[in-house]
């Protein structure tokens, strides 16, 4: 029976990053995914500066034209109001997940991960550390890294459900016709296109990725929101609408159990304001492999989870800080304050871009926003954050 230090379930950004890091540290690793690659993944494909740094560090992949298109201009809207435009901001990059994830997988396999993509898991004995594939082959492992996405069957097996219905996000997306964009074509963000969420239009050469997402519980009419948004953008609904859950600010406090580490979406690591998840997925995958290496070297697999929990604390803290700020942008009573403050402040708009580019983190953004807010809005925000 093939026996691995790590079996990594899921070969998206989180799983392939875990495999890359594991191989670099000399661990044996099997990458299992039910899908054959390349495979579709619903996603805007916006790659932030933070994500680009993780890509370079873990995969040695730079921002090259075969995978990325760079954009430097932005437009922000709220309902029918243009809140402002920004030109020449720190660059952000657009990619197609079909190609992007395939490339990450190729890198992980070239680094020596064993390839079990295109294999469904038939049975999984978490206690024994064994899983049997539909092909009949059984794989044994000492630690499992579960990178099996937002609907993580592993998280469900460990905790009874992969996520909470109260906090989960949901997004709809289409690939609309390409408008033959140039580097100057703006990326468009529409705050409030969905309740407690936003809409986006990402102009790419191949297509225009248009979508909206928000808290699932607050958007029973998500399809109607999308139809209205497409009408506003002047795009007919010619392409097929696809939907997907996304974790939206509720990371698992302990990301795993026993010898199982949850990474990426399976651990709930998506920013609840920007929707950024790829960077956190890559980062957490690599951190899990590092924790696994230390634990295996110490001959104590039980050490991996506490080490990994500590290592991912800054990601969970950033998500918690984003949650504090979220009512300011998304709650209806505060939207007039937000619109006035955001529209009137180039600094705040630039701060938002620096947050996306990875040059600024939430504590600084929180401080700077608080200084600009009218007192009434600040009181409301503090009360909302403390749950009053
Ligand atoms: C509409 C939408 C737009 C988004 N836009 C952006 C964006 O622009 N920028 C950004 O940074 N983030 C964005 N995100 C979030 C981002 O897509 C995720 O955070 C990211 O893909 C998480 O990576 P992951 O590796 O954890 O999971 P995934 O990429 O979901 O990969 C999970 C893998 O696990 C496999 N799997 C699942 N179940 C099993 C099983 N039982 N057995 C074996 N394999 C299994 C799947 O086949 C899949 O390959 C968006 C999300 C959505 C829904």
Q: Please report which band the strand proportion falls in: under 5%, 5-15%, 15-25%, 25-35%, 35-45% or over 45%.
A: 15-25%
Question: What's the level 1 CATH class of the largest domain?
Answer: Alpha Beta
| CATH fold topology of the largest domain | FAD/NAD(P)-binding domain
The CATH homologous superfamily name of the largest domain equals FAD/NAD(P)-binding domain
Protein name: Geranylgeranyl reductase
GO molecular function: oxidoreductase activity, acting on the CH-CH group of donors, NAD or NADP as acceptor
Pfam families: FAD_oxidored
Structure description:
The protein is α/β, with parallel strands linked by helices and 388 residues long. The protein has three domains: 3-45 and 96-165 and 249-311, FAD/NAD(P)-binding domain (3-Layer(bba) Sandwich); 71-89 and 169-246, 2-Layer Sandwich (D-Amino Acid Oxidase, Chain A, domain 2), CATH 3.30.9; 327-385, no CATH class. 38% of the residues lie in helices and 23% in strands. The chain has helices at 13-24, 49-59, 97-110, 153-159, 222-233, 278-297, 304-311, 313-330, 335-344, 346-357, 362-372, 375-385; strands at residues 3-9, 29-33, 46-47, 69-71, 74-78, 81-86, 92-94, 114-117, 121-125, 130-133, 138-146, 169-176, 187-191, 197-203, 208-215, 242-246, 256-257, 260-262. The strands form three sheets. Strands 1, 2, 8, 9, 10, 11, 17 and 18 form an eight-stranded mixed beta sheet that branches. A seven-stranded mixed beta sheet has the order 6-5-13-14-15-12-16, with helices on both faces. A three-stranded antiparallel beta sheet has the order 3-7-4. Helix 1 (13-24) runs parallel beside helix 6, helix 2 (49-59) runs parallel beside helix 6 and helix 8 (313-330) crosses helix 12 (375-385). The mean pLDDT is 92. Residues 9-15, 32-35, 41-46, 51, 121, 147-149, 153, 171, 173, 211, 213, 244, 246, 264-266, 270, 275-279, 281 line the site of flavin-adenine dinucleotide. This is Geranylgeranyl reductase. One of its GO terms (molecular function) is oxidoreductase activity, acting on the CH-CH group of donors, NAD or NADP as acceptor. InterPro entries: FAD/NAD-bd_sf, Geranylgeranyl_Rdtase_fam, Geranylgeranyl_reductase.
């Amino acid at each position: 029976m093939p026996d691995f230090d790590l079996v990594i379930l899921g070969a998206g950004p989180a799983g392939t990053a875990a495999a890359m890091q594991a191989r670099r540290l000399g661990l044996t690793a099997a990458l299992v995914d039910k899908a054959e690659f390349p495979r579709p993944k619903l996603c805007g494909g916006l790659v932030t500066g933070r994500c680009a740094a993780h890509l370079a560090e873990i995969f040695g992949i730079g921002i090259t034209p075969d995978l990325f298109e760079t954009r430097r201009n932005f437009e922000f809207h709220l309902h029918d109001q243009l809140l402002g435009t920004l030109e020449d901001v720190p660059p952000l990059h657009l990619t197609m997940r079909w190609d992007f994830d395939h490339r990450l997988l190729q890198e992980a396999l070239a680094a020596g991960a064993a390839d079990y993509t295109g294999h469904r898991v038939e049975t999984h004995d978490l206690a024994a550390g064994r899983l049997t594939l539909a092909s009949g082959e059984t794989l044994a492992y000492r630690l499992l890294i579960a990178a099996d996405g937002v609907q993580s069957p592993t998280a469900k097996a460990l905790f009874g459900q992969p996520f909470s219905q109260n906090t989960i996000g949901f997004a709809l997306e289409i690939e609309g016709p390409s408008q033959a964009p140039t580097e100057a074509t703006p990326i468009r963000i529409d705050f409030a296109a969905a309740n407690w969420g936003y809409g986006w239009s990402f102009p790419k050469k191949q297509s225009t990725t248009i979508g909206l997402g928000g808290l699932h519980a607050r958007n029973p009419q998500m399809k109607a929101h999308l139809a209205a948004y497409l009408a506003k953008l002047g795009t007919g609904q010619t392409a097929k609408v696809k939907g997907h859950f996304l974790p939206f600010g509720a990371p698992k406090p302990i990301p795993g159990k026993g010898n199982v580490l949850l990474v990426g979406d399976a651990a709930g690591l998506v920013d609840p304001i920007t929707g950024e998840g790829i960077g956190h997925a890559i980062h957490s995958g690599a951190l899990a492999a590092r924790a696994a290496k230390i634990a295996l070297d110490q001959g104590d697999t039980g050490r991996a989870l506490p080490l990994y929990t500590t290592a991912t604390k800054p990601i969970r803290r950033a998500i918690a800080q984003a949650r504090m700020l979220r009512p300011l942008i998304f709650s209806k009573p505060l939207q007039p304050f937000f619109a006035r403050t955001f529209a009137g402040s180039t600094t705040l708009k630039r701060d938002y871009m620096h947050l996306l580019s990875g040059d600024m983190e939430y504590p600084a953004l929180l401080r700077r926003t608080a200084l600009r807010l009218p007192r009434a809005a600040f009181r409301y925000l503090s009360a909302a954050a403390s749950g009053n």
